[in-house]
Amino acid sequence: MFHRESGYFNTTYKADMALYPLPIAKFAIAAILVLFFVVAPYFLDEYYLSIINLVAIAIVGALGLNILVGYTGQISIGHAAFMSVGAYTAANLATKLDLPFWLTLPAGGAMAAFIGILVGIPSLRIKGLYLAIATLAAQFIIEWVINHTPTISGGVAASIEMPPPEFLGKELVNQAELYYFLMVIMVIALVGAMNLIRSRIGRSFIAIRDQEIAAEIIGINVFKTKLIAFAVSSFYAGVCGVMYTYYLGIANYENFQLITSIDYLAMVIIGGLGSILGSILGAIFITMLPIVIRLLMETFGSIFVDDAALAQVIAQFRLIIFGGLIIVFLVVEPDGLAKLWQNIRNYFRFWPFSY
To answer: Domains, the chain, ranges and CATH?
Structure first.
């Protein structure tokens, strides 16, 4: 066995409430931080750094959706709409008022949280599929408002060019510079989500998800807690939209359409509902899936189809695998990749014992 939990004893409340109470977990997190903040930027080229940047953005968005869907049990299909609210809020503040990123970032999240509260108000009366339809309606309504309001969208093609973020007077323009910018935000979002779930509010989220009536009986304000869940989830979505806008250098509604909402819903389903690790694994999996499929099809696809039809085949093949994997995980392992990792970890922890 790698370690025994019974061999470590906490003598203070601070030690007992630590995010990683076991030494091996602390060493593992320290090694991961060194790997991604010290080693990776110096040994990876721009292409691989760009992939990690996209994964970091996706993790923030998946965390927000998992707080709402996985931890609170409120279905949402309009996550991309709240991302667009944050993106256009930050873009307008940056271009019209020349505000720095450390103001536009929280402002975009706050505006998305406000819109999320408005959308979440009907959540006390409607549940399940009906709530999903309500969030889907919010997706289309927000998208329509942005496209038909030149003051918000910038007019032509609903696009606003975003100035690069600045730190200590230096513009962050290349992938390596944006890498640190995005990774720091992602780490803050991760720590915030982990602490939120361990708090009283986080336990209230889980209680409502497991049994709403019982949660109300023991004194939880169900309506207030649901609104908090919508606000927090939308805040994360808004921050994710701002990150995406700074990364691309443009705010455009085409990056926040319904297909994006479905992508993020797939991240939390495949990664694992109600799991911080599941949000990370799901974001990595869904972000890497089209890249891996494209590389495989470019390498072996010419054997089966000609080069002219290869691009179309890649796009359709991605959708087929995408839908098939969701069905597979729902049937075989509903708890997703996080549960598979837990099973593997438990096997090595208790080896060579069968239990």
So the answer is: 1-32 (no CATH), 44-350 (1.10.3470)
- Pairing label, strands 166-167, 170-171: antiparallel
Pairing of strands 170-171, 159-161: unpaired
Report the distance separating Cα 190 and Cα 49, nearest Å: 20
Contact 233, 201 (CB under 8 A): no
To which H or E segment does residue 339 belong? helix 336-350
The model's pLDDT over 248-265, given as tens digits with 9 standing for 90+, comes to: 999 988 889 998 999 999
Helices 276-300/175-198 angle, 10° precision = 140
Lowest mean pLDDT among 204-218, 282-296, 338-352: 338-352
Q: Average pLDDT, stretch 310-329?
A: 73
* CB-based contact 77:265 (threshold 8 Å): yes
Distance CA 274, CA 28 (A): 22
As beta bridge partners, residue 160 has 251
User: What is the distance between the alpha carbons of residues 215 and 207, in angstroms, rounded to a whole number?
Assistant: 6
% the chain with pLDDT above 90: 48
Q: What is the pLDDT of residue 290?
A: 83
The answer to whether 250 touches 79, Cβ cutoff 8 Å, is no
Location of structure tokens 């004893």: 9
Eight-class DSSP state of 170: E
* Helix 276-300 / helix 336-350 crossing angle, nearest 10 deg: 100
The band of 310, judged by pLDDT with boundaries at 50, 70 and 90, is low
**Whether pLDDT at 1 is above 50:** no
Q: DSSP state, 254?
A: G
Joined together, the tokens standing for residue 226 give 């649901």
Residue 34 tokens, joined: 């060194």
Output the CA torsion sign for 242, 139, 337, 277: positive
